[in-house]
Amino acid sequence: MEMTNNELLLAMSSILDEKLKSEMQSMGQELRAEMQSMGQELRTEMRSMKEELQSEIQSVRDETRRNSLILENDVLPRLQNIESCYTDTYSRYRKYGDKMDAVFTDVELLKKVVQEHSEKLQNIS
Length: 125
Description:
Keywords: Coiled coil
Coiled coil: 32-63
Number of strands: 0
Distance between the termini: 167 Å
């Protein structure tokens, strides 16, 4: 019993199909296992990153809260004190600003009077 070329080709094709099917099933299982492993690694990594981010966010919140307290309890009262001193000083200077013009005028007048008196005293002596 001899096989024809077609029968030989069909037999070879069938053998190759079975081997390829077996190999592909094996590769498919390996790929699925690898994908599951990678998926698990990704989930683990994402959980870790999420925890780190939450920790960093909490750290930033704590720092912000601390800065707010410092501003409220330390900086703001000092700033208000500085503002109060500045406005008080400004008010005093403003009140005496008009008087200073009169003082300058009086000093100029005194200079002239002293100079005149000095000249008169020199003439007398």
